[in-house]
């Protein structure tokens, strides 16, 4: 169902950046969530009748899972630990689109046994729900995907991304490439680096073409990100984590992030508002403090534009007096 996503170029702080437009993979199923969930489209899951997931009510993965479920004709239950009043009154973005696709979004705080699960991590809550809900007694027909698609299945689609990047570099006869992408769970960066290393070796390109994967944390800091890597891949495959010294709190609105988002959107490419501003701020810092020679920089646009429908109004309510004039 996917075509190869295009690569476009833009100017960034005096550098040429190549943008891998995974946001354009497919009209309804795009970005890194589409890469992560690609596996389920290309393997036989016809025994599944119900998909269970969990995460934030505005998450990009909520929307992508709802597309997957609709396409496959699965019931889709999605657990959230919180839904804001505002979103309930004004459904929009990923949340509204997922509901339109038939997602059954369940607030765990409203479950009859909410007291038993209060304070538990969402992944554990889902474990608990799986065991205590009669609808889920028949495990054979269930597919349960961890928050953010952090699971080994994600590697299938990310392997495809890796091979597209290698092909692109070969066509350009590029010998040194730096790939940059901001991380949440780190699943995409981890599998991408592992796949690039393995595929380059398999193609016997290892000394000829060097591809380095750089990423940054947008959630919980560098140690947390390394710990996430450790659950998915061997240490030899860890991508390089870079930082600009700031501690970013996921989803927190900041003037710096908003300014950076407006700057990069002037390229004509719309980026998303949760991960990309942090990615570009850290990349900017990296480019200021490191000299690259004969190296192309490829930034992976990981989609998530639908989420801007909820994030942008929040930003505008907070910083409406500071929109760049241009
Ligand atoms: C989910 C997401 C990420 C984070 O991906 P991980 O694999 O969890 O690191 C980054 N950017 C966008 C736009 C996303 O939707």
What does this protein look like?
The radius of gyration is 20 Å and the shape is globular. It is built from 12 helices and 10 strands. The protein is α/β, with parallel strands linked by helices. The protein folds into 2 domains: 7-33 and 152-322, Rossmann fold (3-Layer(aba) Sandwich), CATH 3.40.50.1100; 44-144, Rossmann fold, CATH 3.40.50. The mean pLDDT is 94. Helix 7 (154-171) packs across helix 8 and helix 10 (255-265) packs across helix 11. The strands form 2 sheets. It has a 6-stranded mixed sheet with strand order 1-2-10-7-8-9, with helices on both faces. It has helices at residues 31-37, 60-72, 85-89, 93-100, 114-117, 122-132, 154-171, 187-202, 221-230, 255-265, 276-289, 308-319, and strands at 7-12, 15-21, 50-54, 75-80, 104-107, 142-144, 176-183, 210-217, 240-241, 296-301. Residues 31-33, 60, 148, 182-189, 272, 275, 302-304 line the site of pyridoxal-5'-phosphate (PLP). Its cofactor is pyridoxal 5'-phosphate. Keywords: Pyridoxal phosphate. GO terms for molecular function: D-cysteine desulfhydrase activity.
């Amino acid at each position: 169902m996917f075509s190869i996503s295009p690569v476009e170029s833009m100017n960034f702080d005096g550098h040429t950046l190549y943008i891998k437009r995974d946001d354009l993979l497919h009209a309804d199923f795009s970005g890194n969530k589409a890469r992560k969930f690609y596996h389920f489209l290309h393997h036989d899951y016809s025994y599944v009748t119900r998909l269970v997931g969990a995460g934030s009510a505005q998450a990009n993965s909520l929307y992508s899972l709802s597309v997957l479920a609709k396409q496959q004709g699965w019931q889709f239950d999605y657990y959230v630990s919180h839904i804001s009043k505002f979103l309930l009154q004004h459904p929009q973005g990923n949340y509204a689109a997922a509901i339109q696709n038939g997602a059954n979004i369940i607030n765990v705080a409203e479950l009859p046994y909410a007291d038993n699960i209060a304070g538990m991590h969402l992944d554990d809550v889902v474990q608990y729900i799986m065991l205590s809900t009669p609808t889920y007694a028949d495990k054979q027909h269930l597919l349960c995907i961890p928050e953010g698609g952090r699971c080994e299945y994600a590697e299938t689609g990310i392997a495809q991304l890796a091979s597209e990047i290698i092909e692109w570099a070969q066509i350009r006869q590029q010998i040194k490439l730096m790939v940059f992408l901001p991380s949440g769970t780190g699943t995409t960066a981890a599998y991408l680096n592992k796949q690039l290393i393995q595929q380059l070796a398999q193609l016997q390109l290892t000394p000829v073409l060097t591809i380095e994967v750089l990423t940054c944390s947008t959630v919980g800091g560098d140690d947390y990100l390394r710990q996430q890597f450790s659950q998915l891949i061997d240490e030899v495959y860890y991508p390089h984590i870079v930082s600009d010294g700031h501690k970013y709190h996921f989803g927190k609105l900041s003037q710096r992030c908003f300014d950076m988002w407006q700057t990069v959107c002037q390229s004509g490419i719309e980026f998303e508002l949760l991960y990309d501003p942090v990615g570009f701020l850290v990349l900017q810092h990296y480019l200021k403090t490191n000299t690259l020679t004969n190296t192309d920089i490829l930034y992976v646009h990981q989609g998530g534009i639908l989420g801007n429908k909820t994030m942008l109004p929040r930003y505008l309510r907070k910083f409406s007096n500071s929109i760049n004039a241009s």
